[in-house]
Design a protein that fits this description.
Blueprint lengths: L52 E5 L1 H7 L17 E5 L9 E5 L7 E5 L25 E8 L14 E7 L7 E9 L3 E9 L7 E13 L6 E15 L3 E15 L6 H4 L2 H4 L18 E18 L2 E23 L2 E24 L2 E12 L7 E7 L5 E12 L2 E14 L2 E14 L2 E4 L9 H4 L6 E7 L2 E17 L2 E12 L4 H9 L1 H6 L4 H6 L4 E14 L2 E21 L4 E24 L2 E14 L3 E2 L5 E2 L12 E11 L2 E10 L2 E2 L7 E2 L2 E12 L7 E9 L7 E5 L10 E4 L4 E9 L1
Parallel strand pairs: 4-6
Antiparallel strand pairs: 1-5, 2-3, 5-6, 7-8, 7-38, 8-9, 9-10, 10-11, 11-12, 12-13, 13-14, 14-15, 14-16, 15-18, 16-17, 17-20, 18-19, 19-22, 20-21, 22-23, 23-24, 24-25, 25-26, 26-27, 27-30, 28-29, 30-31, 31-34, 32-33, 34-35, 35-38, 36-37
Length: 744
């Protein structure tokens, strides 16, 4: 998939109020979502009176914080408190990006689209895939829920936070929107959307397409992305409505090469370090790339069962197919290239009944999902490199048959207003059926496709057979908000959340230390049995104070993690491997401040302090105890601060922003420190008015990393590692883009 392309947009952000839409935050019912996105003063509203902690970004905020690429929803949330977003490139196109909230990595951040876990675990996508399926021009809102999550939200895995993306449905009037961008590193993006408007029959729809490409800013290679999307809505009588969205999504990435910690000590010399062009070297760019195709549909059928009640059915389906190539100087004792084939699908539904009563609101629902692995990997082949650059098959490094992961989760949620106090509460029952796995000896299978390889009767590895298991957990949540006056509100919330365990690392550890495990009489299934879903108990206490044209919204949070997975030493084997036995605690403060000192000026500021640490030391060797108790979790800054403004004067709009990310550590012992940094971004727009045939037009310039700050961005580590060798990627240099947008 290597096609010509064209480019993107610029400008604007906000934290919008949490309102009663079903798509993201609360489970409140029968309330239509509205998006505020015109005057600057509407872009800095704090959340409304709900008990849980939310930050919302509307259409204008998505347009600027999403950046010219308009492909990565995490990028649109970078101004929110407790968010640490990093990307290997300036446009968010690369699959190499990281997103942490309150110290937890993206592995445990739930991702939903229109409230459905199309983009999150167990719907798994290699690197990007699911979370970035949709163009952000086709999103009306992105919501970040931190801490406790209402029972009917964050379906799937959401052990720390949830990001929900609300798709922009068909417009009521006919129209065509076109955007064309060009920028640094040969960045190009073309986006086109056509809306039918309301037809003579009760139907409206849209079609859109985008084509995005940029060269890597270091080394050779590029990043490509093509999308085709549609959406339709039909109102069938007064009681029944149907919505359907779909996307065809193609991506191809040439990876960026990571740096060692020693290399980060001299970014001036190593900032451009990358893969090479040597055709016989595993560190060649041609052996470190990825290519994926995704197709997905999601729907919503809403039927009014009464004047104050409705039944909502939301089905979804997603399929991904593709591969990744990764070269290494030492794979099983020699240089090699691993080819990972990924073909899997996910389907499911959310069925709920929503009703209003004299005493409050009630939602009763049921979520079901059926997912095909990976994760963990089932089809990986190892190749050796010939002197002429061709590959010769060595063996299957991973070959497994598996069942599917199945999730069943009924839930109930209620809201009870009591004068100036509003109580919310609910509970979700999570039943997770984990797939069984049968691994095969990789040297007994030929170099054929995964679908054909079992026709050659490869040998089962009797020590690597894992039976399926079923986990059950109750996930309660409770919240209260109290409006003390028109200008003062306090709130508190509690909720238990659920994160999946990391399967793949146990398999690779077992393979690389096979003799030790065999000598100890330990089979793979016993390691598998030591893995359990991670649970967290989240407590938030917040307030909102309004002072004329400004507000201050502080939040205190406390989180307790249990069944936390760490790589710990087993003296019976003499090997460290992942076990779900650890605990951790996070305490912190979040602050959001917004002000509109003038009608044409809007200012937003956020700050967070996060102390996320392990509760006990970790034993990783026979007599080796790693001192991690009280140490900050990897890649988790204690301090972040962000400030931005939107100034509008006539046709001009200027939006500067500065983001500060504090000191971080790549390792659990705080020996590999990464300095804090600040970057500035600038967006300038000019609105063109009264042009014949156009409803609106805009020309914009966006500059990221305005002062070309050199810093370490991504830290390649996990929540599970103790010791080990994390790697690092430098932050992208200054990039500028020009965008022309027109609406007909």
């Amino acid at each position: 998939m290597r096609t010509p392309v064209a480019a993107a947009v610029a400008a604007l952000f906000s934290t919008l109020p949490a309102f009663a839409g079903e798509s993201a935050g609360g489970d409140a019912v029968l309330k239509e979502v509205t998006v505020q996105e015109s005057a600057p003063s509407e872009l800095v509203r704090a959340q409304d009176g709900r008990a849980n902690t939310e930050t919302r970004v509307g259409g204008e905020g998505i347009r600027i914080l999403g950046g010219p690429g308009q492909t990565n929803p995490w990028k649109a949330l970078q101004m929110a408190p407790s968010v640490n977003y990093q990307s290997a490139d300036a446009y968010g196109l690369s699959k190499q990006n990281s997103f942490r909230i309150r110290g937890k990595s993206a592995t445990h951040v739930g991702r939903t689209v229109n409230g459905l876990p199309l983009a999150g675990e167990g719907g798994f996508a290699n690197g990007k895939g699911g979370g970035d399926l949709f163009d952000m021009e086709n999103m009306s809102e992105i919501t970040l829920m931190r801490g406790a999550v209402p029972a009917g939200s964050g379906l799937g895995f959401s052990n720390s936070s949830v990001v929900d993306m609300t798709l922009r449905g068909p417009e009521k009037e006919f129209g065509v929107e076109v955007a064309q961008s060009f920028g640094t590193d040969n960045f190009r993006r073309t986006y086109v959307r056509a809306d039918s408007g309301q037809l003579a029959i009760p139907l409206s729809f849209f079609l859109s397409a985008s084509d995005t490409k940029a060269d890597k800013w270091r080394g050779s290679g590029d990043q490509e992305r093509q999308n085709i999307e549609f959406g339709l809505r039909a109102d069938l009588g007064e009681r029944l409505s149907v919505e359907l969205f779909g996307v065809h999504h193609e991506v191809a990435w040439d990876d960026f090469r990571a740096l060692s910690y020693a290399q980060t000590r001299n970014l001036g010399a190593n900032r451009k370090f990358d893969y090479n062009r040597n055709i016989a070297d595993p560190m060649s760019q041609r052996f470190n790339r990825q290519d994926f195709t995704n197709d997905a549909v999601l729907g919503k059928v809403s039927f009014l069962t009464g004047e104050e009640s409705r039944l909502v059915f939301k089905p979804y389906y997603w399929k991904e197919r593709g591969y990744s190539l990764s070269g290494s100087a030492n794979v099983s004792g020699a240089p090699g290239v691993t080819w990972w084939q990924i073909v899997h699908d996910t389907y499911g539904f959310d069925l709920r009944h929503e009703s209003k009563h004299s005493w409050g609101e009630l939602t009763v629902g049921y979520w079901y999902q059926n997912s095909e692995p990976p994760p963990p990997p089932t089809a990986q082949r190892l190749y050796r490199i010939n002197p002429d650059g061709s590959l010769r098959f060595d063996r299957w490094s991973t070959l497994a048959k598996t069942e599917r992961h199945v999730f069943n989760s009924p839930y109930v949620s209620a809201t009870l207003p009591l004068g100036d106090v509003e109580l919310t509460g609910g509970v979700r029952y999570m039943r997770s059926k984990e797939a069984s796995f049968t691994y095969y000896r990789g040297n007994t299978a030929p170099d054929v496709s995964y679908n054909s390889v079992f026709d050659y009767n490869p040998q089962v590895d009797p020590a690597k057979v894992a039976s399926g298991r079923t986990f059950e957990e109750w996930l309660p949540n409770l919240g209260v908000s109290w409006t003390l006056s028109q200008d003062t509100q306090v709130r508190a919330s509690y909720g238990r959340t659920y994160g999946r365990q990391n399967w793949g690392s146990v398999s690779s550890t077992f393979d690389s230390n096979r003799a030790a495990f065999d000598a100890a009489g330990i089979r793979f299934d016993s390691l598998w049995a030591n893995l359990r879903p991670e649970l967290s108990d989240n407590f938030d206490l917040g307030a909102r104070f309004v002072f004329g044209r400004a507000y201050v919204a502080p939040t205190l949070f406390h989180t307790r993690y249990k069944n936390k997975q760490l790589s710990l030493f087993n003296p019976a084997v003499g090997v460290a491997y992942h076990q779900s036995v650890s605990k951790a605690t996070a305490n912190g403060l979040e602050l959001e401040v917004g002000a509109a000192p003038r009608d044409d000026l809007d200012v937003y500021f956020s700050y967070s302090f996060n102390d996320a640490s392990y509760d006990a030391d970790a034993r990783t060797g026979g007599s080796n105890v790693v001192n991690v108790k009280g140490k900050q979790m990897q890649d988790s800054p204690r301090h972040t601060a962000k400030i931005g403004a939107v100034w509008q004067r006539g046709p001009w709009s200027v939006a500067p922003a500065v983001l500060y990310i504090g000191k971080r550590f790549g390792d659990t012992e705080e020996k590999q420190s990464v300095a804090g940094y600040a970057v500035a971004n600038l967006n300038v727009d000019y609105a063109l008015k009264n042009l014949p045939g156009l409803r609106a037009a805009r020309v914009g310039i966006a500059v990221t990393n305005l002062f070309d700050k050199r810093y370490v961005g991504i830290i390649n580590t996990s929540d599970y590692a103790v010791g080990g060798l994390p790697t690092y990627l430098p932050g992208a240099p200054r990039a500028a883009t020009l965008t022309v947008n027109a609406k007909f």
